[in-house]
Amino acid sequence: MHARYTSRTLLREAGLILLALVFLMPLVGLLNVSLKPQNSQTDALAFAFPPTLDNYTAAWKQAALGAALANSFLITALSVVLIVACAAMAAYPLARVTRGWSRYMFFFVIGGLLLPGQLALLPLYATLRDLGLLGSLWSVILINVGQQMPFSVFLYTMFLRELPLDYEEAALLDGCGPTRSFVTVVFPLLRPVTGTVVILNAVGIWNEFFTPLLYLGGSGNTTAPVAIYGFVSQYVSQWPLIFAGLVISVIPILILYFALQKHVIKGFAGGLKG
User: Fold this and answer.
1) Is residue 87 within 8 Å of residue 153, measured between CB atoms?
2) Count of other CB atoms within 10 angstroms of residue 252
3) Residue 259's pLDDT band (boundaries 50, 70, 90)?
4) How many of the other CB atoms lie within 10 Å of CB of 239?
5) Which of 13, 51, 55, 197 has the smallest C-beta neighbourhood within 10 Å, fewest atoms?
6) Among 44-48, 86-90, 120-124, 255-259, which stretch is predicted with the lowest mean pLDDT?
7) Residue 215 Cα distances to 76, 118, 129, 178, 235, angstroms
8) Which residues contact 152 (CB under 8 A, 6 or more apart)?
């Protein structure tokens, strides 16, 4: 039997549509300004007429967005792969070992969520300088992995605590050791939370501005947000070029989000049950 369509349902749908329009307004403004001529001074919400795609070509060439996007992709991909591998392996014993040290170690790891990254700014910079990694993409990758580990370990641990032990026990009876059991049995079962970890970390790392600016400054390497920032100066800001660059840079991460969006809620639901 279908539920009746009542006035309350109508009001709820109208409210959701209104809320969706509110969230779409910044996107409409972003696209609109990116299609305006560079010398346009009209309001951001006044539709560009006639629209032009010259800003996209200019932004791509002047900001060298091709190389910047390649660097952003490489940093994001390697960071996410390392985060997934390290966080999943770290969370496995934290979730399965029942000794007292496991609980204390878990709280120690997630304690990293309470510490602002700015506290370690100078020591990290000095360490990476001494290692000769300043200006290298690896400096940003290592910083990203360290910063995102606590939250990722938390999600994996909470999800693992909800998984039954039946599959692991069957694998152990078949002769699998703990490592092989984790790789062949447990990790494939972590796909929902892995999707959550991937998309949340990928979005944050892709849009990260301060870390690449600090550790890659002065080198030939740059990322998309830093490259786009080149259109901002003290006296003149080329907003059509900035917005065109933002549209170009946001497309890859939107594709990833829509591809993995079904895993995000599943991963959060499993993680928050614990």
Assistant:
1) yes
2) 16
3) confident
4) 18
5) 13
6) 44-48
7) 15, 14, 9, 39, 26
8) 83, 84, 87, 197, 201
Angle between helices 239-273 and 65-96 (to 10 degrees): 10
- Residues of the chain above pLDDT 70, percent: 90
Residue ranges matching CATH 1.10.3720.10 in the chain = 54-273
**Would you put residue 136 in left (φ > 0), alpha (ψ -120 to 50) or beta?**
beta
Domain 54-273 class, CATH top level: mainly alpha
Q: Return the structure tokens found at 78.
A: 């390697």
Q: Which residue has the higher pLDDT, 119 or 125?
A: 125
124 alpha carbon, distance to own chain's centre:
22
Please report the pLDDT score of residue 274 as a whole number: 45
- Structural tokens at position 45: 């919400």
Q: Residue 232's beta-bridge partner residues?
A: 237
Tell me: pLDDT of 68 over 90.
yes
Strand, helix or coil for residue 232: strand
pLDDT of residue 263: 67
